[in-house]
Amino acid sequence: MSARLPVDVITGFLGAGKTTLLRRLLARPELAGAAVLVNEFGEIGLDHLLLERIDGDVVLLKSGCVCCTVRGDLKAALEALLGRRARGEIAFDRVAIETTGLADPTPVFATIAADAALKHRLRMGAVVCVVDALNGAATLDAHDVSLRQAAAADRIVVSKTDLAPPEACSALAARLRALNPVAELLLLDAETPPPALWLTGAGEGPPSRWRADTPAAEPGHDARAFLLEAEAPLDWARFGLWLSMLLNAHGDDILRLKGVVAIEGVAGPVAIQGVQRVVHAPEHLEAWPDGDARTRLVVIARTIDPERVRRSFRAFVGRAGTNAAAASA
């Protein structure tokens, strides 16, 4: 297991129930060792008062949403927590960040992945997105940031299912599965205890989800999930160049990329995941959980023709040359 501490993120649009879920999660004894960062929009923060955190390890970021303009604030808060931990003032084994409902979670990824001091001490854990069963469908239609939140998630929680008609919950769940087939989906009411959503890493979901391929566009946003596959192991340098070129050209429209890659000369799979232009450090897994030693990458993207990306990837896999692969993208 990595010595770096996991940073888990709970996201979701305004009113989805993030703080309620966070409070319920932190009540679990397995998560008693979490330090919490609560990020709120506005000058006066109130939600952190509802968390009832023991030992006061709650840091309130008052700079507004977690976005590019406050990335330095997030970095400073993380460094302060790590400093206090190193001095023995507090003890924690993971960090939980609750973003504001208006925040794209991508800058959290970027802050950890790009900062030299943080990336050696922290790693991305799981991203949990809360979607309101009552208003989730309308929110996805009306607000692009809600689409980005759901697409970036490793686990999606449909909240308030006890308040919405069963058919509405089923329709929303089907829509979210189509939008993000690599995310675990949980329908949760106010009474059912939530599972320990952060006790497993973001790259540990069942590989069967990485087979999903849903070419139909997401209504109103032209977002879709599609699959890239390769039978033979890939050359790591060539793959890295292809991925860099793809993200450089289309990174803003690639909402999520996740899967396992077979690499020449490497016995086990390498887990790859990223959000927009940010890619996490690759993780070497001990074995292929399903025995299927093939490259499988799920891409969730907007405005990009999946066949163009597939053609680019096939050119790369077929070793037609990196220039041809880049031109196809």
UniProtKB/TrEMBL annotation:
Gene Ontology, cellular component aspect: cytoplasm
Domain CobW C-terminal: 223-317
Stretch forming the signal peptide: none
Xref: Pfam families: cobW, CobW_C
SUPFAM superfamilies the record matches: Hypothetical protein YjiA, C-terminal domain, P-loop containing nucleoside triphosphate hydrolases
UniProt function note: Zinc chaperone that directly transfers zinc cofactor to target proteins, thereby activating them. Zinc is transferred from the CXCC motif in the GTPase domain to the zinc binding site in target proteins in a process requiring GTP hydrolysis.
Reaction it catalyzes: GTP + H2O = GDP + phosphate + H(+)
Keyword Secreted in record: no
Taxonomic source organism: Chenggangzhangella methanolivorans
Record-given protein name: GTP-binding protein
Keyword Nucleotide-binding recorded: yes
Molecular functions per Gene Ontology: hydrolase activity; nucleotide binding
Domain of life: Bacteria
Keywords from the named record: Chaperone, Hydrolase, Nucleotide-binding
Record-stated family: Belongs to the SIMIBI class G3E GTPase family. ZNG1 subfamily.
Lineage: Bacteria, Pseudomonadati, Pseudomonadota, Alphaproteobacteria, Hyphomicrobiales
